[in-house]
Write a structure and sequence with these properties.
Blueprint (H helix, E strand, L loop, with lengths): L1 H4 L3 H14 L1 E2 L10 E2 L6 H9 L4 H7 L5 H13 L1 H16 L1
Antiparallel strand pairs: 1-2
Helix pairs in contact: 3-5, 3-6
């Protein structure tokens, strides 16, 4: 703990960013290789889509009891950093649904 408290603000932010990034995994044979929440089969795009449809964090946590607030924060951060990529996935998924 003493090591963490001795970090500068910039170092702490970098550490937090690294920890958040570990919450998102990309594994070729899991969820079609799409970014997903750590050790689960919940793709980030699924959470983003539900959020775009009006679901708030509380509803997502109720519907996905294995998720934590930190998981959602990591998902929203990942989406913010990879918005174009995930929007392309959402568009493709919606086109498949409408075909």
């Amino acid at each position: 703990m003493q090591i963490i408290t001795s970090l500068s603000t910039e170092e702490r932010l970098l550490l937090q960013e690294r920890l958040n990034s570990m919450a998102i995994q990309v594994t070729p044979d899991v969820c079609g290789g799409q970014p997903r929440i750590r050790n689960s089969r919940i793709p980030v795009w699924t959470l983003v889509e539900f959020r775009q449809q009006g679901a708030d964090d509380e509803e997502l946590l109720r519907n996905y009891p294995g998720l934590t607030r930190e998981d959602l924060t990591a998902a929203w951060t990942y989406y913010a950093q990879h918005q174009e990529e995930l929007n392309n996935v959402l568009t493709a998924m919606n086109q498949e649904d409408n075909a």
